[in-house]
Amino acid sequence: MAKHPDDEPLELLQGTLDMLILRTLQWGPQHGHGIGQAIRQQSDELLRVETGSLYPALHRLEKRGWLQSKWGISEANHKAKYYELTAAGKEQLARERNRWSQMVDVMGRIMNHPTPSEE
Question: How large is the greatest C-alpha to C-alpha distance in the chain, in angstroms?
């Protein structure tokens, strides 16, 4: 996606952070900072996940049984908690993708529906 000088970070819609975390972990275990970086890079720097949102989301997803974590050593040789998808997390990601596709379809229909003046 081409960057424009007036591009500003986009705010995540409520509920999408969980889906993005699950999607990011589909490629394998990652520590929190790495998850945030991956989301930022995959969005061409338009989505930035703040620490105050990311870590509560990770803990919530782990509590729901969609993630599991274990301690390891990061690339920078620091102790870090690594998160990975559980089988239930993979199932939840599939449900979230289906719901997201439905939402995009519905929003597209509404936004592209001609207004009375265009009909």
Answer: 62
Q: Which helix (H) or strand (E) holds 81?
A: strand 79-85
Residue linked to tokens 């998160």: 83
What mean pLDDT is predicted for residues 6-16?
A: 69
What is the rounded distance in angstroms from the CA atom of residue 7 to the CA atom of residue 48? 13
Given a contact cutoff of 8 angstroms between Cβ atoms, the answer to whether 39 and 49 are in contact is yes
- Give CA–CA dist 116/57, Å, rounded: 42
**Angle made by CA atoms 103, 108, 112, in degrees to the nearest 5:** 155
**pTM, full prediction:** 0.82
As a residue count, the chain comes to: 119
Residue 31, token pair as written in the block? 């520590």
Dump pLDDT digits (tens) for 64-117: 999 999 999 988 899 999 999 999 999 999 999 999 999 999 999 999 988 877
DSSP symbol at 105: H
